[in-house]
Specification:
Layout: E1 4-7, H1 14-29, E2 34-36, E3 43-47, H2 51-61, E4 70-72, H3 79-82, H4 88-97, E5 102-107, E6 122-126, H5 131-139, E7 144-145, H6 160-167, E8 173-176, E9 187-190, E10 197-200, H7 206-213, E11 217-218, E12 246-251, H8 254-270, E13 275-279, E14 291-294, H9 302-317, E15 322-326, H10 333-344, E16 349-351
Parallel strand pairs: 1-8, 2-8, 4-6, 5-9, 10-11, 12-15, 12-16, 13-14, 13-15
Antiparallel strand pairs: 2-3, 3-7, 4-7, 5-6, 9-10
The structure holds adenosine monophosphate and magnesium ion.
């Protein structure tokens, strides 16, 4: 398949943007696939109400078909069309966080094909906080099913370059525009039980949700390295975000972490093996690895979130065999960063 790339500049005239989005919307309406930017990561969109489109999304990503897609909407009125009922908590959370990086799970209505929901009777819904994405969703008919626009198993793309690398020849169109200010996928909260439960941590934290709806649980299997139970979001059980080389997280006092990582990377260098480090600003200049990624200050973990997937992709581009990352504090967005790092590392974490 020929993949068209349409770039939209930040200062592009309105009429030209409208034309490009209308073209992208028509592709979705005709059963095709379009990658588009959001504030979290690039999405790989298809018509959420067309089972054939969902099948194509799974095929393009090489994604197991029991791993459901998130339906993206642009207008609150559209929610009622795809859910059996809108729980009061959903109304409150939407008022507080939509448009934004929050996905809510509710009972699905009959018009949502089970191909879109991976066979489940629930549906995941989100309204992205990205003007182009919202206009694109409207142009596409209002319901765009979209997982992240990466090949299954790879880090989610936060820049068009990596969408192109993964999806060229597999989808109809790539919209190349600014986005991914957050850099990690949305928080997923399940509203089908008595107490809302976070199935995937993200920028919207447990504390932020609690302020709006009271008690909120967290799917503990997400952080438990020895968990025998499966995570409740089907997608979270798959190996994910993984670089080609081996990634290890190192947790402890900053000085001890630095010493451990430098000892390891020095050893590998002696053997002619290329190494990488993801470290924080506070001690970045003291690392010895071949490729050193500055995740910004420990005090401002959002910078690390924004860059994490790009770092993992760059390590691949640079053929790095062994990578080490400083562990992050498991609070606020640090919790989402740790969740993604643990998955990328296959849960290899060393305490020093
Ligand atoms: P991605 O679009 O790549 O961020 O993946 C979507 C995530 O949402 C996956 O982890 C899915 O398992 C999860 N998800 C989507 N729909 C549901 C649902 N109905 N119930 C639980 N998890 C879901
Ligand atoms: Mg994904």
């Amino acid at each position: 398949m020929e993949t068209e790339i349409l770039s939209i500049a930040a200062d592009e005239p309105e009429e030209s943007v409208r034309q490009k989005l209308s073209r992208a919307g028509d592709i979705i309406k005709n059963g095709g696939l379009v990658a588009f930017p959001t504030e979290t990561v690039y999405g790989l969109g298809g018509d959420a109400l067309n089972s054939e489109s969902s099948r194509k999304i799974y095929a393009a990503k090489g994604r197991p078909s029991d791993n459901p897609l998130i339906i993206h909407i642009a207008d609150m009125e559209r929610l009622a069309g795809i859910v059996k009922e809108t729980p009061e908590n959903a109304r409150r959370l939407a008022a507080a966080f939509w448009p934004g990086p929050l996905t809510m799970i509710m009972k699905k209505s009959d018009i949502v094909p089970v191909q879109t929901t991976g066979g489940l009777d629930t549906v995941a819904v989100r309204m992205p906080n990205h003007l182009l994405a919202l206009e694109f969703i409207r142009a596409a008919g209002g319901y765009v099913a979209a997982p992240s626009a990466n090949l299954s198993g790879k880090p989610s793309p936060t820049i068009a370059k990596y969408v192109i690398q993964d999806m060229m020849g597999r989808i109809n169109l790539i919209l190349d525009a600014d986005g991914a200010q957050i850099g990690l996928e949305s928080t997923i909260v399940d509203l089908t039980g008595a107490v809302p439960m976070i199935l995937r941590p993200g920028y919207i934290t447990q504390e932020m949700l609690s302020r709006v709806v009271g008690e909120v649980d967290m799917d503990i299997t997400l952080f438990d390295c020895d968990a025998t139970a499966s995570p409740r979001a089907p997608g979270m059980k798959y190996r994910h975000y993984a670089p080609k080389g081996e990634l290890v997280l190192v947790e402890g006092e900053p000085e001890a972490v630095l010493r451990y990582i430098n000892t390891q990377t020095d050893l590998h260098r002696k053997n002619g093996i290329k190494t990488g480090v993801i470290g924080t600003q506070e001690q970045i200049s003291r690392y010895h690895a071949d490729s050193i990624k500055n995740a910004g200050s420990r005090e401002e973990p959002l910078a690390a979130a924004q860059q994490l997937y790009t770092f993992l992709r760059e390590f691949d581009d640079e053929n790095i065999a062994y990578m080490y990352a400083e562990a992050f504090e498991g609070t606020g967005i640090g919790q989402a960063i740790m969740n993604r790092l643990l998955k990328a590392a296959g849960h290899k974490i060393i305490q020093v």
